[in-house]
Amino acid sequence: LREQAETDRPNEETPDVGIVMGSDSDLSTMAGGKGKRPGAYAALAEELGFAEQTDYTDAPEARFTFETFVVSAHRTPELMYAYAETAEDRGLDVIIAGAGGKSADLPNMTASIAYPLPVIGVPVQEKSVDSVIGMPQGAPITAVDAGKSFNAALSAVQILSRQYPELRERLVDYHRDLQQGVGEVSRDLHE
Amino acid sequence: LREQAETDRPNEETPDVGIVMGSDSDLSTMAGGKGKRPGAYAALAEELGFAEQTDYTDAPEARFTFETFVVSAHRTPELMYAYAETAEDRGLDVIIAGAGGKSADLPNMTASIAYPLPVIGVPVQEKSVDSVIGMPQGAPITAVDAGKSFNAALSAVQILSRQYPELRERLVDYHRDLQQGVGEVSRDLHE
Amino acid sequence: LREQAETDRPNEETPDVGIVMGSDSDLSTMAGGKGKRPGAYAALAEELGFAEQTDYTDAPEARFTFETFVVSAHRTPELMYAYAETAEDRGLDVIIAGAGGKSADLPNMTASIAYPLPVIGVPVQEKSVDSVIGMPQGAPITAVDAGKSFNAALSAVQILSRQYPELRERLVDYHRDLQQGVGEVSRDLHE
Amino acid sequence: LREQAETDRPNEETPDVGIVMGSDSDLSTMAGGKGKRPGAYAALAEELGFAEQTDYTDAPEARFTFETFVVSAHRTPELMYAYAETAEDRGLDVIIAGAGGKSADLPNMTASIAYPLPVIGVPVQEKSVDSVIGMPQGAPITAVDAGKSFNAALSAVQILSRQYPELRERLVDYHRDLQQGVGEVSRDLHE
Amino acid sequence: LREQAETDRPNEETPDVGIVMGSDSDLSTMAGGKGKRPGAYAALAEELGFAEQTDYTDAPEARFTFETFVVSAHRTPELMYAYAETAEDRGLDVIIAGAGGKSADLPNMTASIAYPLPVIGVPVQEKSVDSVIGMPQGAPITAVDAGKSFNAALSAVQILSRQYPELRERLVDYHRDLQQGVGEVSRDLHE
Amino acid sequence: LREQAETDRPNEETPDVGIVMGSDSDLSTMAGGKGKRPGAYAALAEELGFAEQTDYTDAPEARFTFETFVVSAHRTPELMYAYAETAEDRGLDVIIAGAGGKSADLPNMTASIAYPLPVIGVPVQEKSVDSVIGMPQGAPITAVDAGKSFNAALSAVQILSRQYPELRERLVDYHRDLQQGVGEVSRDLHE
Amino acid sequence: LREQAETDRPNEETPDVGIVMGSDSDLSTMAGGKGKRPGAYAALAEELGFAEQTDYTDAPEARFTFETFVVSAHRTPELMYAYAETAEDRGLDVIIAGAGGKSADLPNMTASIAYPLPVIGVPVQEKSVDSVIGMPQGAPITAVDAGKSFNAALSAVQILSRQYPELRERLVDYHRDLQQGVGEVSRDLHE
Amino acid sequence: LREQAETDRPNEETPDVGIVMGSDSDLSTMAGGKGKRPGAYAALAEELGFAEQTDYTDAPEARFTFETFVVSAHRTPELMYAYAETAEDRGLDVIIAGAGGKSADLPNMTASIAYPLPVIGVPVQEKSVDSVIGMPQGAPITAVDAGKSFNAALSAVQILSRQYPELRERLVDYHRDLQQGVGEVSRDLHE
């Protein structure tokens, strides 16, 4: 990671959103999957046209991309430190960090080390909410509700959309589809 | 508000951050004050060089500004609706919305109506956290911990700093001062 | 909805009770159904002789009727606003509003906008109770316990019964049957 | 009480709203008073023009009135029973019942016995909410949030207002004043 | 029940322990049964030699007996009142009263009305504990933990055993068997 | 204590109720005192005519007496063990055991060791309730609500009253006075 | 146990870690097993090379060993007392004590009686955490999170490792393997 | 710190216990002081004969010593990292780590980085307990109850006492004094 941070790649070729999580058991919440509600992957890849970048040196064609890492605050603290410290230099604009358990330290520590990059915390379990949200004054993080990695992705793109009007349009399109769905449900009740 | 939204003012003269709260009793939490911990005002005005804009048609000289409104979701729903609906057209880039009580609907409703503008919710009381954070899929909001309007302001400026490198520098300067303070405390223990 | 509000239909032909909910996933709680406990529909239609009115311009023969809408406070705020604002003009006497999640804003917002119409909130989940019940002074709502849409319907008819003695009789009849059921259970234990 | 129930007084001369509470220590919550937030008394007497009726056989001149009783479910169960059983015959249209503690049984028992009269429960303390709201299917009660006897009074008058258009006007007037208050606060911030 | 209270039967022929519960759905907790942990029935009938008395006028041969009633505080308040008021005159020495839900009023009301008879409350669900235990000063009840009707029966017999040394012996015998069971488990681990 | 247990004193001269608590800081809750609500002492000594016995070998004249000990489950486990083990032989009929903190083990351990003597647990703090009430099957204890040592004393005397009709009368007298107090409060509101 | 305590066996032949639990139903949490997460047994026997000693007089060949006992604080208080009182004399260096339920007294009582031996409490259920951790000043215990007997074993060996450098090496080896596992998961995401 | 870690000082001259905390506002809990309950300092310095070492290169005469640092996980993550990483090399045998707030990450992160050194976490506030105790499998920490830094110090010395019999004696002496204090309180009640 530190090597990548030192390379000087054009902004278009680095990932825009970084997704980190504390354990591979968090994948179903962060990415969604079989029998699970859609997660951050679904929001980014299916609704908003992002591509996943799995090789830092070989960017996909899509203009907007995200990457994913599993780093544990408690089991691999050095790896977590390295990821957060190099994030801005590696070209990321916003990080989505998820962790479960009652000591969900990954989002907090990532926000502290990656500062001033904006970090959106995702408590993977209900019992992780307090630990993710409770930062002291001077150490900013914002959080979504337990398990809502889909919404964290929308919020991340809201941040990016202040710079990229194209993303603002994608968000508006997504919302229009969503509202039509609710409208149809109500109409069905009256037929 | 609707008239202001229709005017076509240059971006530099409109407020960048909007602060709304549900009641004037929330002012001490949102803005800080006597005997209270510093709030969003202190972060913006004292630490990060923002000016408060009290007259929409007469911008202060400072490049970055914020404005403040008291609108109640439950007592003045029309006013809340109008503020959120016109926010983006009035030139805001991010909204900080605070509310207290167990039905702290203002941040949620503002986020829903002002979409796709990013909204940071501030639960004014501990018991407001659940209501602020618990949005359904497709309706994004991010939140800080109860009473942490100071941090909400830092997060808001983190969002703006992706566009304005000048703000990124201010955030870094603030952080350096903060860390020196902690370092001095520890050193005092050893003398 | 706004068109309907402007028509001038006789009171006997408009719905007396309006049932709104935030999502079609709330239907099983609000209306009951397979494998679920009886809901507001069962109370109104099976126990108290109400008919469902699915077409506003074509009232059923039954004197007392109810209607149902799905409107989301966070995903379709305009629709919610329109329903609550026109409710009294459309002839409703009482609204039962149910929502789930931790930010169950629909009952609160409906009560605020439909005021002075009485609104009975139904928290669809246990975690929705705080959000539904916690309104500030001056913004009245009353609520039933989580999932108790059946009781909300009884309470709605208690309100109507102050005007319509016929409904008071139906409530008394329902209660007599209920008490006989409990009596029989106790008697069975002694045989 | 039972004697009063047997008398046949004209509806205009009996109290419309009955306020019962479990202990005289609940008076400051139910009625308001020095250093306390306004309660049901303030809502009824100061905002909505009701008079308190302290002598059942000597009605005040005001058209709409309320009465107050202290009856303890656990210390004077017979008295509670008598009050609830005779309430409808004594001419009441709605009861507001408040109790504190974790076993706040008075509102529940009153609602069960006074059925089919609508009863609005007021949990006097936060810890009383669960006990007041948790009624089983078939035993209706609606409740306001802890300590919100002011709102309970508004809700009671919303119920009465379905019969008495005069009360509907008073509710609308009260609301207009309330909204102007919020509007002025917001305006003050901009001067 | 009131007739029975007026009869003058010898103490040996009346039930010693009364078990009341709010709903037949509480039977599996109060009495135990298939797939459930043993309840008060198992403790009384299987461990301590009590017989169930199902006909008040025809006592079983066993010296110590118990009876069971289903009475709902909220659905049949009159029946509950009658049971509690006549309990002492009908010859009972202690009542075990169980109820579920968040408004578990049956044990409290029974204790208030049957006073000075000792009443042991059984919260049928975890969420019933607060409501059962929270009586105000001057209104005594004691309670066991959620679902522990087996222990409530042991406690009831502890009360009776102050008068009847025979029951004290049965309690000691039961305990000896229990301790041998634990001892054997530990020994098994070392073989 | 063990010596006392071996003496063979007449039942009239030994204490009937034993009060134990885990720390002298529990005294204000268990015994009441300045600025505190009345406790077990007030119930026994002032309302029900018990005398405190401070010297085991020198009984007061009153027929019914209680004694008090401070024994800590965690700091003096041997003393706790000795008290509970000898309680029945020392002539006690019921024990009231109070403890504070989240690990309020004294009531539980006393109940386990003093078995089959009935033990009433008093959680001295709200956070002690779970620890006091949560005994496993086969290990009976009953408990009152947090801080309600006054009610624990009433319950203890209810147990004794099954043997001593004189105590039953005292309980009834106490209750009559209590009810008159509530009645007077309600009457004052109507004058 | 008391006999064993009086024998004078060489330190190498006595168990180093004692595992006690309140019920055989705690075995699956404390020891792990089918369909359960690995427990203290797995940590000690599979990861750190300990052997179980089931016969005190016949030590296994392994230098470091542990033993297991089931003793109930509430059902067999004497046995619990004997185990804790003799633990240090029987050669143990640290005790891991687990219990479930809301009154999880075994770890606390064991720590109080076995003092000054270090005791690590394992709350077997989430609801046992408060009871295990809440000891008063002067009565030390440390605890792990609910169900984390695996970690309790690691902590116990951390204590032993201050004396035995060999155990320190085993802990470091275990950790290296663990970190490689997390690293591989993250790498898999990028292939 | 890293320089100190590389020096090769004799074990007797390095601190045995390290106390770290997240903020100087935690000092009153960790060290005790005016109007606060005694903390870890009081336990170590006043009860167990430890001296504070404020200059790493100039050890006090006392054989056993402790040192204190303020390092914030969220505001000075590098400093925290450096302290934990060098702790074992700087000669510490056990760390006591305290932090407040809902995201009390300092104890967890310190335990993860300082591994295999034993770390005892002190939640400075009640709301910090979950965050301190909730570590995932493979990342050991043990914790005391909220605010109980005094007990954490006793536990730390229990760990050291396995190596140093002298400390075991000091622990036993402290306990004897404590028990005499409880005994005297109970005796005072009987005079």
Describe this structure in words.
A six-stranded parallel β-sheet of chain A has the order 2-3-1-4-5-6, sandwiched between helices. The model of chain A has no long low-confidence stretch (mean pLDDT 92). Chain A is built from eight helices and six strands; from the N terminus they run αβααββαβαβαβαα. In chain A, 61% of the residues are buried. Helices cover 42% and strands 14% of the residues of chain A. Chain A has 191 residues and is an alpha/beta fold. In chain A, α7 (149-161) packs across α8. Chains in contact: A-B, A-C, A-G, A-H, B-C, B-D, B-H, C-D, C-E, D-E, D-F, E-F, E-G, F-G, F-H, G-H. Chain C binds chain D through residues 37-38, 93-94, 115-118, 120, 129, 133-135, 137-145, 148, 150-152, 154-155, 158-163, 168, 171-172, 175, 178, and chain D through 37-38, 93-94, 115-118, 120, 129, 133-135, 137-145, 148, 150-152, 154-155, 158-163, 168, 171-172, 175, 178.
**Assembly state:** homooctamer
Q: Structural class per helix/strand content of chain A?
A: alpha/beta
With strands numbered from the N-terminus, the spatial order across the biggest sheet of chain A is 2-3-1-4-5-6
> How many distinct beta strands of chain A?
6
Segments of chain A where pLDDT lies below 50 for 5+ residues?
A: none
Largest interface: A-B, 40 and 40 residues
SS strand fraction of chain A: 5-15%
Instruction: Supply the number of helical segments of chain A.
Output: 8
Compressed to H and E, one letter per element, the order of chain A equals HEHHEEHEHEHEHH
What's the architecture of chain A in CATH terms? Answer: 3-Layer(aba) Sandwich
Q: What is the CATH class name of chain A?
A: Alpha Beta
Number of domains of chain A: 1
CATH topology of chain A: Rossmann fold
**Overall pLDDT score of chain A:** 92
